[in-house]
Specification:
This protein is of the alpha+beta class. It folds into two domains: 3-159, Ribosomal Protein S5, domain 2, CATH 3.30.230.10; 166-291, GHMP kinase, C-terminal domain (Alpha-Beta Plaits, 2-Layer Sandwich). The chain is built from nine helices and eleven strands. Strands 1, 2, 3, 4, 5, 6 and 8 form a seven-stranded mixed sheet that branches. The protein binds adenosine-5'-triphosphate. Residues 60-61, 65-68, 89, 95-103, 105, 136, 178, 253-254 line the site of adenosine-5'-triphosphate (ATP).
């Protein structure tokens, strides 16, 4: 096998708690990741020497600044394979939106290269590569729709329960860099760890009868205010999603994407229509329904 194509799904953070600043300059967090059905498509082909990248989105760098380049370089370093690779990224995830678009592409490259080269590396070695290139990459190496991420978000504890959430994702035409939002965040530990949230979300007491209000209070993002300060339109989107019936609406990661959680896909699609009609959306906004993937 010389070529393969892999889906690289986006993530959102159902909760994100910022616990403090670490000595290495990163932040200590505790987050609940959810993999969602908005996917980039990564095609990886063996090549003789170089790492060559192409991307359908002209705003994404295709040189060594692309995180896929770093992933491939680390893979070849670790395996000591003297090879090259051509990587094509069909970009569907909005860029710098808080949905880990770059990180999921990098994870797809790590997994794909390992498959093309006879699974030479074991999972812990793949995780080492992921940890070295970005905090959000590691989650995508686990075959799980939900997981708790601690430390930099890179220490992953998968959640086995099956559950499907229905979302509307709205991202205004602003790129927000995670490092700028974290730099603005000062109120460490304002949100206390919500004990029992995982049970409330995944193992409701009344069987399938989920108390959506109770669940809603388990979903939070410590960074939301910092994102809103940078991009006030985020608040407007959030309020609009509530008006459309979302039982929770919040910023994902470091924003500026906002997601609404709806009771079913029909309600999410209705909200999408209303958003297009009533919010002053330009063609550069991203708006899409998505479900747990
Ligand atoms: P996170 O949620 O992990 O903080 P993000 O979704 O906010 O990430 P990305 O879409 O990964 O942000 O983009 C962050 C920056 O990385 C962009 O400015 C972009 O130029 C650069 N970048 C490098 N490689 C990629 C890639 N493969 N896809 C998207 N952006 C990339």
């Amino acid at each position: 096998m010389n070529t393969l194509t892999i889906d690289a799904p986006a993530k959102i953070n159902l909760f994100l708690k910022v616990k403090g600043k670490r000595e290495d300059g990163f932040h200590e967090i505790e987050t609940l990741f959810e993999r969602i059905s908005i996917c980039d498509k990564i095609t990886i082909s063996k090549a003789d020497q170089n790492i060559e990248i192409s991307c359908s989105n002209p705003n994404v760098p295709i040189d060594s600044r692309n995180i896929c380049y770093k992933a491939a370089q680390k893979f070849f370093d670790k395996t000591k394979i003297n090879g090259g690779v051509k990587i094509h990224i069909q970009k569907n995830i909005p860029v710098a939106a808080g949905m880990a678009g770059g990180s999921t592409d990098a994870a797809a490259v790590i997994k794909g290269l390992n498959q093309l080269y006879d699974n030479r590396l074991l999972q812990p070695e793949l995780i080492d590569i992921a940890n070295a290139i970005g905090s959000d990459v590691t989650f995508f190496l686990y075959n799980t729709a939900f997981a708790i991420g601690t430390e930099r978000g890179n220490v992953i504890k998968p959640i086995q329960e099956k559950k499907i959430f229905y979302h509307l994702i709205v991202c205004p035409d602003k790129e927000v860099l995670a490092k700028d939002v974290y730099a603005r965040y000062k109120n460490f530990s304002l949100n206390l760890t919500r004990k029992g949230c995982i049970d409330t979300i995944f193992r409701p007491k009344n069987g399938e009868k989920i108390n959506q209000e109770e669940q809603g209070s388990c979903f939070f993002n410590d960074l939301e205010e910092a994102v809103q300060k940078q991009e006030p339109v985020v608040r407007e989107i959030r309020n609009f999603l509530y008006e459309q019936g979302a039982f929770k609406a919040m910023v994902s990661g470091s924003g500026p994407s906002v997601f609404g959680l709806f009771k079913d896909m029909g309600q999410a699609l209705k909200a999408k229509d209303e958003c297009v009609k009533k919010l002053s959306i330009t063609s550069d906004w991203y708006i899409s329904e998505a479900e747990t993937y």
